[in-house]
Design a protein that fits this description.
The chain has one domain. With 113 residues, it is mainly alpha-helical. The strands form two sheets. The protein has a two-stranded antiparallel ribbon with strand order 1-2. A two-stranded antiparallel ribbon has the order 3-4. The protein is built from five helices and four strands, in the order βααααβββα.
Length: 113
């Protein structure tokens, strides 16, 4: 079961900062591959966006750059686990690709000390 993100702006900001600055690059690469597969397998998404758009998006993803687009995709989907503590970073809700809000908050708190 999943929920939609309904967290405070501060919690989302903490999670975004944690994802972009402190998560493992290999973990982000795994998530990137899942997003690419998702777009390749979906000729049209729930908003009616067509295949051509997805091809352009995939080509942008393949370019070597930061992984901010992963955050943008996850935020656009806005899905989390039942309870809301784990944000889905991939389109499938793989447990290993959750971003835990408590962990993000602890990371952010250390930065404020």
């Amino acid at each position: 079961m999943s929920w939609e993100w309904s967290h405070t702006d501060e919690a989302i900001d903490n999670a975004q900062h944690f994802f972009l600055c402190n998560t493992d690059k290999e973990w982000q690469d795994e998530i990137a591959v899942e997003w690419m597969v998702y777009y390749l397998n979906n000729k049209q998404d729930s908003t009616g966006t067509q295949w051509e758009f997805h091809i352009l998006k995939i080509l942008q993803m393949i370019e070597p750059k930061d992984q901010e687009w992963i955050w943008e995709e996850a935020e656009a989907n806005r899905v989390c686990d039942n309870g809301g503590f784990n944000l889905w970073m991939c389109p499938y809700g793989c447990e290993k690709h959750y971003l835990n809000l408590d962990e993000a908050e602890r990371f952010q708190s250390k930065g404020r000390e």
